[in-house]
């Protein structure tokens, strides 16, 4: 079994970080596997939704800093830039992504979860921006993600102290989408993933891009982008299928073209 297990079923791709003896701490090999998977999924039209989770009861305890032990400054910079490539590939993935979080999600592992479009967790999951406790600053997009998710004041609190936040508290502060009993997490994740696979792929991809860009655009730019993108949707077969399904009182069968 590899460090990243990949399962495909009915349009859902599940990526499982598989290093449970290290609480799924990600070494360079695992980061490379994630990057390769994101790039492959981007090109596969039959991959509709991505679920990222961890084996053995934990999500990801962060980057394996043992990979950097004794390495030169140049190697460390290369290593960190590779993490940035992984984060950017996940951000640019034109398909909905769901993080399913049990156990610990720390440091880069926490930000891997927060980089997903939707984050579902067990009530007793443990989120932490552990960086200051390791003498480090934020990485894997944390400085960009946190203010957008919870506002600047709360972002600084999480980043400065590195305290552990339960899944339940993460939900209350708006850091994640849902926190549920651990026994319900698989079912909720499956429900959301299946629902997303039945959505219009092109329209969902466009919506994701519009929302991701929203903090960097003016209202005028946002409206112009919406107009251009909606004109594409209005000419798509998915739009025509939606109209047929409405008239026939059935669920649409979106094909993504």
Textual characterization of the structure:
This protein is an alpha/beta fold and 257 residues long. It folds into 2 domains: 4-197, 2-enoyl-CoA Hydratase, Chain A, domain 1; 201-248, Lyase 2-enoyl-coa Hydratase, Chain  A, domain 2. 48% of the residues lie in helices and 16% in strands. It is built from 10 helices and 9 strands. It has helices at residues 28-43, 73-92, 108-114, 142-150, 152-161, 167-172, 182-197, 201-212, 219-234, 237-248, and strands spanning 4-9, 12-17, 49-54, 97-101, 104-106, 118-122, 126-128, 164-166, 178-180. The strands form 2 sheets. A 6-stranded mixed β-sheet has the order 1-2-3-4-6-9, sandwiched between helices. Strands 5-7-8 form a 3-stranded mixed β-sheet. Helix 1 links the parallel strand 2 (12-17) and strand 3 (49-54). The two termini are 36 Å apart. The model has no long low-confidence stretch (mean pLDDT 94).
Helix tally? 10
CATH superfamily of the largest domain: 2-enoyl-CoA Hydratase, Chain A, domain 1
Distance between the termini: 36 Å
Structurally, the number of domains stands at 2
What's the number of extended β-strand segments? 9
The spatial strand order of the largest sheet comes to 1-2-3-4-6-9
| Overall mean confidence score, pLDDT | 94
The biggest beta sheet is recorded as: 6 strands, mixed
